[in-house]
Amino acid sequence: MSAATEELPLRHALTVPAVGAAVRMARETAEMVFTEWGVNPGHPTVNPALLVLSELVTNSVRHAAEVSPMVTVIFAGGRDCLAFGVHDRHPYRPSLSASLIGPDAGGLGTVMELTLGLGGTAVVHGDPDGQGKSIWITLPL
Question: Which of 113, 90, 121, 131 shows the shortest CA–CA distance to 2?
Fold first, then answer.
């Protein structure tokens, strides 16, 4: 977690098995959490945030499930910001900047385009033991 997200007062965590249904569970949980935090479901950041979250959880399920049977999503929020991190225990750390290059950028390309288009940030944090990572997205409201 970055220093900026550590300062966000609102928190919620979800840990689910790394199976296809995890995407739906993460998305439904995000909708519930954002609503509880007073974020209007019609806010222009919400739908792109849900798509970004879905892409990140899908990537964990597709690429990390064999070595990481669980995926954790941590939501953080404040008055003018939403953040979420998707964590798995696969050691591979994708290059988010490289995901914007080329016609086959794929899901991470979509994540980066949406995040940057909303004025947000995306970072990859490795676990201290080198055996996992979290991809954190921070979006202004």
Answer: 121
Label residue 38 left, alpha or beta by phi (over 0 means left) and psi (-120 to 50 means alpha). left
Find tokens 């965590």 and name the residue: 13
pTM reported for the whole predicted model: 0.91
Amino acid at 12: H
DSSP bridge partners of 85: 74, 136
- CA 115 – CA 111 distance, rounded (Å): 6
Look at residue 130 and tell me whether its pLDDT is greater than 70. yes
Q: Could you tell me which residue, 106 or 123, shows the higher pLDDT?
A: 123
Q: Could you tell me the CATH superfamily of domain 3-140?
A: Histidine kinase-like ATPase, C-terminal domain (3.30.565.10)
Query: Residue-wise over 91-108: b if at least 16 C-beta within 10 A, else e?
Result: eeeeebeebeeeeeeebb
For residue 76, list its beta bridge partners: 11, 83
pLDDT digits (tens, 9 = 90+) for 19-41: 999 999 999 999 999 999 999 99
